[in-house]
Amino acid sequence: MLAHFFESFGFSTVLVGFVKEHLQAIKPPRALWLDFPMGRPLGIPNNPEYQKKIIRTAFEIFNETSGPILKDFPDVIPVKNGRMGYALPVELVIDQNEIGDIDTLVEEVKVEMENLKLDYEEAINFRGRTTVGASEVLMNDYVNFISSFVKGEIPQSTRKGIGPVPLLKLVVEDLQAYYTETITFRDKIDDFEKIGTWFWEETKAGRLILCLEAVSLKSENRVLRQIVDMSLITPRFWSEGPLPGTSGSGW
Fold first, then answer.
1. Residues 199 and 205 sit within 8 Å (Cβ to Cβ)
2. What is the pLDDT of residues 123-170, one digit of tens each?
3. Full-model pTM
4. Rounded to an integer, what is the distance from CA 131 to the centroid of its chain?
5. 27, 34, 39, 244 — which has fewest CB within 10 A?
6. Which residues pair with 33 in a beta bridge?
7. Are 238 and 84 in contact, with CB atoms under 8 Å apart?
């Protein structure tokens, strides 16, 4: 819809999308359909030549003289086993009475983060960027901020205009990104299941967030419960297969 808006002011646009049925219904002036898993608009990670191929294919659509144009990218990146990504099995749900000594867990996460620090810094140097930092909370404060909620406390937000619960979501995402960016660089992993299994089932940080979920599910704070119910803290939802029709993207 934004493409139509920009075009009305004389700007030429080209859209890349994963769900062909949506592109066919909205009819943007120029569009490239990618038969890729959602979240991978440039295809294969750490492959700049392949990524340039996608961008150049999209830009070629500007040469068309009439529209709307919907072009199919020739390659397919399949969704593995019909899944968009890792999802925690039901048996890994933690009950609040199973949390144990939270202070010990907090110290274990801090040690774990420190052990990953050099690899994380190397990952930044290699990629030239990081997605960590959206919360604007200092990295050293991630664990204490999250653990406050686990202990039943809701701390003050450190950001103007953002409440403590929305900030919690951003801090959790920053913590996950710190681990994910590190492991994908260090171990050269490009597999949703392996990354998810490692973080959620093997790391202390994953355990901390599972404890957060356990407390949140019984919290009297409706916003906190809603975030958990929508699986915005832990990955409880997963795809059982592709969308109907011609789209190969998982849902």
1. yes
2. 999 999 999 999 999 999 999 999 999 998 888 898 888 999 899 999
3. 0.72
4. 10
5. 244
6. 17, 72
7. yes
